[in-house]
Amino acid sequence: MEHLELFFKAIFIDNMVFATFLGMCSYLAVSKKVSTAVGLGAAVIFVMAITVPLNWLLDQYLLQEGALSWLGEEYADYDLSFLSFIMFIATIATMVQLVEIIVEKFSPSLYNSLGIFLPLIAVNCAILGGSLFMQSREIPTLGLAFNYGISSGIGWFLAILAIAAIREKIRYSNVPAPLRGLGITFIITGLMAIGFMSFGGMLTGGDEKEETTETASIEVVAPSQESSITEEVETVVDSTTINEPQIIE
Amino acid sequence: MGLLSKKDAKLITDPLADNNPITIQVLGICSALAITADLKASIVMAIAVLFVLAIGNVVISLLRNIIPSKIRIIVQLIVVAALVIIVDIILKAFAYELSKTLSVFVGLIITNCIIMGRFEAFALANGPWRSFLDGIGNSLGYGVILVIVGFFRELLGSGTLLGIKVLGDPIEKTGVYAYGYENNGFMLLAPMALITLGIIIWVQRSRNKALIEN
């Protein structure tokens, strides 16, 4: 049950792109075409599934306060957590390099499709962010850390897929000239983030009921304002769901 | 500008507007958006990036002939990580509350694309003094955008600037609140950072038509 909860939470509620803005650089740079977006997204899932559990082990048995106690009594009060940035990034950079070599050796076809994206990943904030959030949220077991890595990767994958599909379509629309390209992408991402905020109530069953009664009482005060906001959210959600079948094709 | 030649001064002024790292080069967006809900955090983040980028550029530029090109990414990451640890420890010592609000985003300076981008594009090919100026220029360009976004989000979202209530007290209805003004809490949420940045880009590109993309 807690696995399932973490899985959905990491994909929808704490989505890497829409809730914490991680990996925005490659998200904006590589989302011009759906096919390249799929390649990079898959590579991110792959690398996160490896690095998050690996960094969890490092954190548990090397970096945390008292983590070195397995070496013996006298090491029990060492606290190496100030080294975590350097350890995490070194692990990620080495793993990316290793994965690149292994994939090149055993599956040249996969290497050709992922190849160019793998070096990019070492500096993707989503990967380091995954490990740092894993540390600051104190994920308790190795299995959950693995789950967290995969599901935040999937969340990032979904986000880049959706924006790539929208950007492919938006080429046929008449966007004001100064907004073309980067500007409109930012605004669309903002609207998609508003849409993703509606997932916020997904896991808080009891709290959600309280919230609805609250909004109901507000609605009595200002009905027009409230309904216009919900309408906007609904249209955003609709547009993302409309786009998803196109992606699968 | 007696100290700097014209070419050197351009290294600082260019990234401030026409070659801004955020709005034109599209680098370093991640942290630009996440921590701009109030002005103070934006300013501290800008200073932290200034420190890391200026010193990091000098270090990489000094090492540029020694680093084998195959492992340069790892070397660059280690240099940045060491500098970021220094920033993190200083923040924890002198501004503990603020380091809690910035949380993991201080650590994420390591993967801030501006830093890797400037190392790759500039410091590996230029001398230490020019790299230092380039680092200052680019981090100032980054800081300007951060401060603009932070300014609008804090002013419209909570009616304060640096924690000072510039628009009056919302509870006692003084200042503009006496005329029925309300804070727009939506500005404090994540999506509005993206939309604010989109609007900044819009304004900048309609003022300078040369920047418009096809």
From TrEMBL, chain A:
Q: Which residues form a coiled coil?
A: none
**Where is the protein found, in the record's own terms?**
Cell membrane; Endomembrane system
**TM stretches of this protein:** 6-30, 37-58, 78-103, 110-133, 145-166, 178-199
Name the InterPro entries on file.
NqrDE/RnfAE, NqrDE/RnfAE_oxidrdctase, NqrE
Q: Which GO terms describe its molecular function?
A: oxidoreductase activity, acting on NAD(P)H, quinone or similar compound as acceptor
Question: Which top EC class is given?
Answer: translocase
EC assignment: the record states 7.2.1.1
**Single GO cellular component annotation?**
endomembrane system
Q: What is its main location?
A: membrane
Query: Sorted alphabetically, which keywords does the UniProt record give?
Result: Cell inner membrane, Cell membrane, Ion transport, Membrane, NAD, Sodium, Sodium transport, Translocase, Transmembrane, Transmembrane helix, Transport, Ubiquinone
**GO BP annotations, alphabetical order:** respiratory electron transport chain; sodium ion transport
A Pfam family that the UniProt record links to this protein? Rnf-Nqr
Q: Which reaction does it catalyse?
A: a ubiquinone + n Na(+)(in) + NADH + H(+) = a ubiquinol + n Na(+)(out) + NAD(+)
Indicate how the chain sits in the lipid bilayer. Multi-pass membrane protein
Is the 4Fe-4S keyword given for this protein?
no
Task: Cite the PANTHER family for this sequence.
Answer: INTEGRAL MEMBRANE PROTEIN OF SOXR-REDUCING COMPLEX, NA(+)-TRANSLOCATING NADH-QUINONE REDUCTASE SUBUNIT E
Please give the family membership noted in the entry.
Belongs to the NqrDE/RnfAE family.
Function of the molecule = NQR complex catalyzes the reduction of ubiquinone-1 to ubiquinol by two successive reactions, coupled with the transport of Na(+) ions from the cytoplasm to the periplasm. NqrA to NqrE are probably involved in the second step, the conversion of ubisemiquinone to ubiquinol.
Subunit annotation = Composed of six subunits; NqrA, NqrB, NqrC, NqrD, NqrE and NqrF.
Instruction: Indicate what this protein is called per its UniProt record.
Output: Na(+)-translocating NADH-quinone reductase subunit E
State the organism of origin: Lutibacter maritimus
From TrEMBL, chain B:
Keyword set includes Ion transport: yes
Reaction(s) catalysed (UniProt annotation): a ubiquinone + n Na(+)(in) + NADH + H(+) = a ubiquinol + n Na(+)(out) + NAD(+)
Where in the cell?
Cell membrane; Endomembrane system
Q: How does it sit in the membrane?
A: Multi-pass membrane protein
What class does this enzyme belong to in the EC scheme?
translocase
What's an example of a GO molecular-function annotation for this chain? oxidoreductase activity, acting on NAD(P)H, quinone or similar compound as acceptor
Protein's UniProt keywords contain Ion transport? yes
Any single biological process term in GO? sodium ion transport
Q: Which UniProt keywords apply?
A: Cell inner membrane, Cell membrane, Ion transport, Membrane, NAD, Sodium, Sodium transport, Translocase, Transmembrane, Transmembrane helix, Transport, Ubiquinone
EC assignment: the record states 7.2.1.1
Q: What is its main location?
A: membrane
What do the Gene Ontology cellular component annotations say?
A: endomembrane system; plasma membrane
Parts of the chain that traverse the membrane: 43-63, 75-95, 101-119, 184-203
Reported function: NQR complex catalyzes the reduction of ubiquinone-1 to ubiquinol by two successive reactions, coupled with the transport of Na(+) ions from the cytoplasm to the periplasm. NqrA to NqrE are probably involved in the second step, the conversion of ubisemiquinone to ubiquinol.
Subunit structure as annotated in this protein's UniProt entry: Composed of six subunits; NqrA, NqrB, NqrC, NqrD, NqrE and NqrF.
- PANTHER family named in the record: ELECTRON TRANSPORT COMPLEX PROTEIN RNFE (PTHR30586), NA(+)-TRANSLOCATING NADH-QUINONE REDUCTASE SUBUNIT D (PTHR30586:SF1)
Q: Belongs to which family?
A: Belongs to the NqrDE/RnfAE family.
Please state what the protein is called: Na(+)-translocating NADH-quinone reductase subunit D
From what organism does this protein derive? Lutibacter maritimus
Q: Which gene is the coding source of this polypeptide chain?
A: nqrD
